[in-house]
Amino acid sequence: IDIDVNVELFNSGLENIVRNAIHYAKTKIDVTLSVKNKILIVNIHDDGPGVLEKDLPQIFEPFYRGERPENFNDYGGSGLGLAIVSRLVETHNGTVTAVNDNGLSITLTLPLKHIAS
User: In 3-state terms, what secondary structure has residue 106?
Assistant: First the structure.
């Protein structure tokens, strides 16, 4: 089993999610990889403040920056990082979801291809 990806886009997408997790996490970031039914599942979870529910549907849109949590020192950003993630999954026929789960959990799914032996 192998994954056929644009390496630069794949790296950039994962880097953007992890960078956001680093900025928002209070104490912990979990990154898990698994394979189920020939689908690679990548989950990045941080224990930060999460995203306001009203902002969740738009966070993968270019230049969208939702409201910041109260008393949060904003690190800046242009609102392009998660749009790159969206482009990654669209390009590779995958999916991306974000949910508040005692922090923020972002899950990517990417189809695997079978390499004949």
Answer: strand
Q: Whole-model pTM?
A: 0.85
pLDDT means over runs of 10, the chain (117 residues):
79 92 94 93 95 88 73 63 89 93 95 62
Q: Chain centroid to CA 105: how far? A: 8
Q: How many CA atoms lie within 13 A of 47 on its CB side?
A: 5
Question: CB–CB of 90/83 below 8 Å?
Answer: no
C-alpha distances in angstroms, 28 versus 22, 70, 85, 91, 103?
9, 20, 21, 30, 10
AA identity, residue 64: Y
